[in-house]
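Morning run. Coffee first, then this:
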Amino acid sequence: MKISMLLNYAGGMKERTAELKEFEKAGLDVVWVPEAYSYDAPTAMGYIAANTEKLIIASGIMPVFTRTPSLLAMTAAGVDYLSDGRAMLGLGASGPQVIEG
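And here it is:
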């Protein structure tokens, strides 16, 4: 069994990442990084990857309407490489509030 959590995108990314480091020590396996009203998911995922050691970093979710398919693939490959294979790609449609807002 794997233990996962959704990253709270409210507040500061540096503070959330410091919390994740402690959660990782306590046994957290996966963090899901939303893309909604703050940073884009890949930026947050890269920062988390640079500051953790074994945590799987998943996009939960990256909207497919905001990027071309080739950009999605390049971004996923880049985050996966920089995290030493710890990235997980979650894609979805999102919703009108995020996409149109």
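The chain has a mean pLDDT of 92. Good start to the day.
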